[in-house]
Design goal:
The chain has 12 helices and 16 strands. By secondary structure, it is α+β, with helices and mostly antiparallel strands.
């Protein structure tokens, strides 16, 4: 019970925590995606407007000029002698790169001794600037600053023509504003359709050349769409923006590489995950406390009931279930007490029934003993009658056979000799019946232990009893496990072949070694056994379709004895697949295995 409650609470809290985490995670990812999409659009617009003069007409770049001069002055190094002037070429190249090929840039250094005294001796001189529109529509932006040692006055001027493209400094300004919106943007680089770096908008002073990877360049030019690549190890996402301002003209087509560092997003998601894990663990602990409290409240009365039931189960049916709190437990206690009461009544009735059964059992045992004695007496009488019949009928048959044989050899007419032969056949049949009855009696009553028997001796003894029958047997030295009734199997099979084969039937007895068993085959050249009778001939009182007389017990006795010996017997064709060319009865016996 406690485990079940704890499991339910744990699964519920875990499910809710997981759902909460997935929802918040989705919101975080969606928020970052929206910021990156907004940033991409700002950069895309800036690049698209590079060639549109209305986007920068009247733009005041004085602030940027002052900042550029301030950067140069900060890194200023005085010349080794007073004869040479400081090198201003880096500053000119930087201005030219920022404001583009269409602008005119100039940088002048003037010794402070050649300017007005108010400039030379003023210790509070601050960088200043001037913007003026020329008669041809161009705009000149100038900025002034002193070198740190006060030796030179630095003047930088940029003339932006009326007609021309947007300078790169405008794009840098857009990137700066985009960074204010998206602080995890790391870099923005612009490439042309050849994959060459046009400008690094996050660091315009960077003059190091660069190229875009051929695979990414080919993908962007082929799809003519934006591509995003995520590096799971560094948590950096690089978006390649395909910018085509002239709709199909590759001259102004640009591929903008924008790199975002999403480590902050990963940290944010991990913080949410950790919070949900801690919340889940605390919830599980709280649930465990609730489960323990609930279990104690529920199991305490249950334990009391179990204890009382245990006392009753040990035989004290007069013990009552103690009263506990709760309607459900009160009903349970009432039901158990009622059940125990009924159980007592049932036990009393069972005891009364047991006495009656005991009385009936005594009477039944007496009746069984009486019937058993009567059956034994009846069985002895039946055996006595069978012995008398077998003995007296055999004696009578012996006398009858003797006189019939004598009569058959006497000087009789043909009809009389035929009648004598039929009487002689009937007497022989009576002898066969008596012998089969005796064999069956021995089979069912005299189950002796099996012993080693010489198979060759048994077969030769039975063959010798039929000197007038052509029987071929080659002999064997195999010893089998059987008893003194084994000869009945061979005798019945020889008699069956003689009976159904008719005059002139040849019989062959073959013995084949089959490993731990031996197979004996009794084959004849008679009419054979059809396939539909090969299983049925072993049934009791079942005879074949020949006209020969018989009791139908011979093969049944053979199967009973062979089964008792642990073997099998079957009817087969003497020639495989040709039942009309003779029958074969094959049976197996277990070979005698000598032990060390």
């Amino acid at each position: 019970m406690l485990f079940f409650v704890f499991l339910v609470i744990s699964v519920t809290i875990g499910f809710l925590s997981t759902i909460s985490y997935l929802e918040v995670r989705g919101e975080i990812v969606e928020a970052y995606e929206e910021v990156m999409d907004h940033t991409d659009e700002m950069i895309r617009e800036a690049v698209v407007l590079v060639n549109r003069e209305e986007a920068y007409r009247g733009r005041d770049y004085s602030t940027e000029m002052v900042a550029i001069l301030d950067t140069y002055v900060t890194g200023y190094t005085p010349p080794p002698d007073n004869a040479s002037l400081p090198d201003t070429r880096p500053l000119e190249e930087h201005l030219h790169r920022l404001f583009g090929e269409n602008t005119a840039t100039s940088v002048h250094l003037t010794r402070t001794t050649e300017v007005a005294d108010i400039v030379r001796y003023s210790s509070h001189f601050q960088p200043t600037w001037e913007v003026r529109t020329n008669s041809d529509g161009s705009v000149t932006t100038s900025a002034y600053d002193l070198t740190p040692d006060g030796s030179y006055l630095l003047e930088a001027a940029v003339i932006i023509p009326k007609q021309g493209g947007i300078p790169a400094i405008y794009q840098q300004d857009i990137v700066t504003k985009a960074r204010e919106v998206n602080p995890f943007m790391e870099s923005v680089r612009v490439y042309d359709t050849a994959g060459d770096l046009v400008v690094d908008l996050t660091d315009p002073m960077n003059t190091t050349g660069g190229t875009l990877g051929p695979e990414m360049l080919q993908q962007a030019l082929t799809t003519r769409a934006d591509v995003a690549v995520m590096d799971e190890e560094t948590h950096r996402m690089t978006r390649y923006l395909f910018v085509d301002p002239d709709r199909g003209t590759d001259e102004n087509t640009r591929i903008v590489e924008v790199t975002y560092n999403l480590q902050e997003r990963v940290d944010h998601i991990n913080a949410v995950k950790l919070f949900n894990i801690i919340t889940g663990v605390l919830g599980v602990l709280f649930g465990a406390l609730v489960a323990l409290a609930s279990s104690w409240y529920i199991t305490r009365p249950v334990d009391a009931i179990v204890e009382d039931v245990g006392i009753i189960a040990r035989g004290d049916l007069d013990h009552r279930i103690r009263a506990t709190k709760g309607i459900e437990f009160a009903r349970l206690e009432e039901s158990v007490n009622m059940m125990v009461g009924r159980l007592k009544e049932t036990i009393e009735k069972l005891r009364e029934s047991e006495e009656q059964v005991r009385e009936y059992s005594g009477d039944l045992e007496e009746m069984v003993d009486q019937r058993t004695g009567q059956l034994e007496v009846a069985n002895e009488e039946a055996n006595l009658y069978i012995d008398i019949l077998l003995h007296d009928i055999n004696n009578a048959n012996t006398v009858t056979l003797s006189y019939l044989e004598f009569l058959k050899e006497s000087d009789l007419s043909d009809d009389q000799r035929e009648y004598a032969g039929k009487a002689l056949a009937g007497a022989h049949k009576s002898v066969e019946i008596i012998r089969n009855v005796g064999t069956i009696r021995k089979t069912y009553e005299k189950r002796t232990d099996l012993a080693p028997i010489s198979l060759d001796r048994v077969i030769r003894e039975e063959v010798a009893l039929h000197p007038d029958t052509r029987i071929r047997y080659d002999g064997t030295d195999i010893v089998v496990m059987a008893d003194d009734l084994l000869g009945e199997v061979v005798a019945n099979l020889i008699g069956n072949s003689r009976k159904h084969g008719g005059d002139g039937t040849e019989i062959r007895i073959a013995v084949a070694d089959r490993g731990d068993k031996v197979e004996v085959s009794v084959e004849d050249t008679g009419p054979g056994i059809t396939d539909d009778l090969k299983d049925a001939v072993f049934e009791r009182f079942r005879r074949g379709k020949s006209t020969a007389s018989g009791t139908g017990l011979g093969l049944h006795i053979c199967r009973s004895l062979v089964t008792w010996y642990g073997g099998t017997i079957r009817a087969d064709d003497r020639v495989a697949g040709r039942p009309g060319e003779g029958a074969a009865i094959r049976f197996t016996l277990r070979k005698y295995q000598e032990t060390d």
